């Protein structure tokens, strides 16, 4: 069929849009890509001035070529993808900001450093000053000065043979695990972002701006030199009416006499020292608060006027008491040791709908700690969504798990040792008996440690790493599912079961078999396998399909 001769000729309809519309479109790209797009033609040449969002992330350094001729002490690593070197991230951010002078009001500034240098502190101050001066009715600031984990605590669990030494420290297991404990290497949270086993541990701690220091040391460091990597947030940042959200860290606060951020609704502080409590108390409209690794913060009292809808406390291990109004609180997140009974005080009698609890460090095993765990979980029994992470799946102590009558979505994350199949089934069964309305169950299996991953030998080649996968399948292994009463939710309400990072270990297979063979109303099963050979993944997939009772269920595997 011939073409319509009366049809309008094809053309660049995008370039026919107004500059403000094109600038809005480019604002969804990283700033350097938006600048390249604006250089396409003369029509686009001045469009970048209308971009209202400047976002840049410092790229990761190149992966060293250990198979080549590079030696750590004699030359720089070989970059196999070497090309024209990119300008420093600080220069790119400055060019993106000052390249839009006289343009549209700035709506958002988002910058992420891989490793911040104190020499760039003056530039960062200039960016913030520009952002506040060029802001419109609202401004969102996201300034992450170091891309590194925020906590150095490992997940560790004790063997059930009773041989492990019982540690009884107040912070809930921050000490190094005993000899007969397990500590999975991939889930290490290193606050320094480097090698955890430093030759001089004290010097490494001093390099961390968020590490607790004595009063003498704090006085000595009160005025850091320009060559130190600690960034001091400028006072002008806390006296601006435009910011709606602020994410910053690591840094030190130097607040003005009067903090004036009347429109701020979201605050996210990572490894921030200084007057955190006074900063939080200054926001009358605060709705979303996140504190990460603010180690010098001992107590937090959110003012009653702030109607929080979300509160997240991650790895603030010195934090001993938190008080907040819960009348509008809908989401709560916590990561740390099992807290004391007086840790959290919620005023207002609201209902938290979504809860994420992550108990890092050693596994809770002694009765006093299990009692604290039960009391802490009791605060969230009205939740509809719960994500529970611990060293052992389900905290290894189902008796501490209270009834959640309204829970619809449950995600359990933790390790399931191969010699612990009976206990794993009993734990998950007991938990499911206390969630009668459960619709979606997700099990995320943390890997057990592997000697190859913990090796410091840099001569491990790719073939050894591939052979070191943890995916396994033994068709002759006896899957003796223990006798257990089928939880009512499996028979009546559970419609979806997800198995994430499934490795095919004996205990994992036993647990999966018990769940899938008794989930009579399940309509969707999703399996995400750990990395390994395709033929093992295929065998595990076929086995899981065979266990599903409802053969018409939608089954997906990755």
UniProtKB/TrEMBL annotation:
Enumerate the SUPFAM superfamilies for this protein: F-box domain
Question: Domain named At1g61320/AtMIF1 LRR: which ranges?
Answer: 227-443
In residue numbers, the region (Disordered) covers 158-227
Q: InterPro entries this protein is in?
A: F-box-like_dom_sf, FBL13/AtMIF1-like, LRR_At1g61320_AtMIF1, LRR_dom_sf
Question: One Pfam family from the UniProt entry?
Answer: LRR_At1g61320_AtMIF1
| Acidic residues: bias regions | 196-209
In Swiss-Prot or TrEMBL terms, this protein is called: At1g61320/AtMIF1 LRR domain-containing protein
What is the scientific name of the source organism?
Panicum miliaceum (Proso millet)
